[in-house]
Amino acid sequence: MKKKLILESGEVFHGTGFGANLETDGEVVFNTGMTGYQELISDPSYCGQIVCMTYPLIGNYGINRDDYESIEPAIKGLIVKELCDLPSNFRNQLTLDEFFAKKNLSGISGIDTRRLTRILRSKGVLKGKIVSSDADDSTVIESLKNTTFPTDQVASVSTKTAYASPGRGLKVVLVDFGSKLGILRELTQRDCDVTVVSQDVTAEEILLMNPDGVMLSNGPGDPEDVKGASELINGLLGKVPIFGICLGHQLIALACGAKTFKLKFGHRGGNHPVLDLQKNKVAITSQNHGYAVDQESLKNTDLEETHIALNDRTNEGLKHKIHPCFSVQYHPEASPGPEDANYLFDEFLELMHGFKSQEPRAKNQEYA
């Protein structure tokens, strides 16, 4: 299948299609990971996006049953330099081409991903479309310029029905804004009794479950589009420990009076260094976000900056000065090779144990 990728800025890339033979449009972004394409494809945070992989060879270890981050992928498409059609791995069950065909997803290979990445770094993320080779370029470009993508990505990927992952330890409510299975995995490995709830849950509904802690998950899109999140978080602050990851981190910032902004081309990959300001220690982290917390806007809030990105000095972590609540912008549940950030789940357990041991009258006082 001869295909081409067309950007709203006018650039056209010719290549070969793989997966389903269909046209697809979305926000074109790039990911710098050398591996992890299966996790990426199934990560709900990529809802509505066409992802360009900067590493030149993709698909070399195939698709297996164990590395999914969701049941159904929300990604719109994939762009690669070279697609491997003969993967070699003892866990391999499908090629990337076969998986895309089964899931009715469209991809394109054989294009200059280095050039595309340089365009995205220079111009910022762009709208793009994978189309047949005979499509009229000018018509597609004009269509892209007038295209407005949906803003309800979180609602589209969040669970519609609450479900439980039983354990005998601390009781945690996981609010699913587009949660990766890795977050649930880390909690259940620590024997937490987890209940996963929809993104439109209320604080009252969560408090009726009498949890020991609340986890706010990752998810796609602009945090300002997530209606009701600030009311949810403010209804929980001081009443139960809270841990936010990625979108959950941004939502905590908004609920506490800070602001967020869209990054020029985002952070997406498994090799991002982050400095823990409290421990003066660097972790290599996995990241996937297009928005960040405005550091200047933190000054008149009860939030304290705890982590920063070493590549561009943007915010990567927060801690509430009064209540038991903290968050990070990156993904501690991911394993980009090292597991540097995994300790944050243990800190969440310690926070819950500490809060639980307090006298009830002290729970709404300053948490030390």
Automatic annotation (TrEMBL):
Stored Gene3D superfamilies: 3.40.50.880, Carbamoyl-phosphate synthase small subunit, N-terminal domain
CDD domains, sorted: GATase1_CPSase (cd01744)
Active site location:
C246, H331, E333
Pathway field: Pyrimidine metabolism; UMP biosynthesis via de novo pathway; (S)-dihydroorotate from bicarbonate: step 1/3; Amino-acid biosynthesis; L-arginine biosynthesis; carbamoyl phosphate from bicarbonate: step 1/1
Query: What reaction(s) does this enzyme catalyze?
Result: L-glutamine + H2O = L-glutamate + NH4(+); hydrogencarbonate + L-glutamine + 2 ATP + H2O = carbamoyl phosphate + L-glutamate + 2 ADP + phosphate + 2 H(+)
GO terms of biological process kind: 'de novo' pyrimidine nucleobase biosynthetic process; 'de novo' UMP biosynthetic process; glutamine metabolic process; L-arginine biosynthetic process
Presence of the UniProt keyword Ubl conjugation in the record: no
- Carbamoyl-phosphate synthase small subunit N-terminal domain location is 1-131
Which InterPro entries does the UniProt record give? Anth_synth/Amidotransfase, CarbamoylP_synth_ssu, CarbamoylP_synth_ssu_N, CarbP_synth_ssu_N_sf, Class_I_gatase-like, CPSase_GATase1, GATASE
Record has Amino-acid biosynthesis as a keyword: yes
Q: Which GO terms describe its molecular function?
A: ATP binding; carbamoyl-phosphate synthase (glutamine-hydrolyzing) activity
The top EC class, named as a word, is ligase
**A Pfam family reported for this protein in Swiss-Prot or TrEMBL:** GATase
Tell me which UniProt keywords the record has, alphabetically.
Answer: Amino-acid biosynthesis, Arginine biosynthesis, ATP-binding, Glutamine amidotransferase, Ligase, Nucleotide-binding, Pyrimidine biosynthesis
Complex formation: Composed of two chains; the small (or glutamine) chain promotes the hydrolysis of glutamine to ammonia, which is used by the large (or ammonia) chain to synthesize carbamoyl phosphate. Tetramer of heterodimers (alpha,beta)4.
| The family this protein is said to belong to | Belongs to the CarA family.
Q: What is this protein called?
A: Carbamoyl phosphate synthase small chain
Q: Which organism is it from?
A: Marnyiella aurantia
